[in-house]
Design goal:
- This protein has about 170 residues and is of the alpha+beta class.
- The protein has one domain: 3-Layer(aba) Sandwich (Aminopeptidase).
- The chain is about 30% helix and about 35% strand.
- The chain is built from five helices and seven strands.
- It has a seven-stranded mixed β-sheet with strand order 1-2-3-4-5-7-6, with helices on both faces.
- The mean pLDDT is about 95.
């Protein structure tokens, strides 16, 4: 059985190892690269998990006992004219835990977004070629509203588009 909870700076090392695993093993699923991210000091990771003092940003972790195996971020838009939107990003589930847990994690992230004041829309971006993620998001009610061609250039020289998706909550 798994549980959810907000990540804190005490989770930083476990979170960072899992994030680097995702970036290394699935480089075509993320905008960030393993090479860029692996140099980040743990202190910065801890600060990132804590968020800004007055922010409603949440990093949600999915645990098997004390073992973190999945995570994602919900962050409200900051501008007053965009306060009706929140972004889900950085979603990852370790391969050995896949098979329904990604859906559960996304459902939990959507519920976190619904708790934010004034949020009416949840936005996310998925890289082209990541059909499993895009299919999951569509099954949860997200719809494509824009594409950014050649948004990310991978280390092998190929490009991926950012596919922007939205769900009204």
């Amino acid at each position: 059985m798994y549980t959810f909870r907000k990540l804190t700076k005490e989770d930083a090392e476990q979170y960072w190892n899992l994030r680097l695993e995702g970036l290394k093993n699935h480089p075509d699923a993320f905008g960030h690269s393993f090479d860029d991210e692996q140099q980040t000091p743990l202190r910065e990771v801890q600060e990132g998990l804590e968020g800004e003092p007055d922010s409603d940003e949440v990093w949600l972790g999915m645990f098997d006992g004390d073992t973190l195996f999945g995570f994602g971020q919900v962050k409200p838009y900051e501008l007053s004219r965009e306060s009706h939107k929140a972004m889900i990003s950085g979603v990852y589930v370790s391969p050995e835990y896949r098979g329904g847990t990604g859906r559960a994690l996304m459902e939990a992230l959507i519920e976190e977004a619904k708790k934010l004041p004034d949020v009416e829309q949840v936005i996310l971006a998925v890289l082209s070629g990541n059909e499993a993620a895009q299919n999951l998001y569509e099954s949860l009610g997200f719809e494509v509203y824009a594409e950014d061609p050649d948004s990310v250039k991978l280390e092998d020289g190929t490009y991926r588009d950012d596919i922007w998706m939205k769900k009204y909550v």
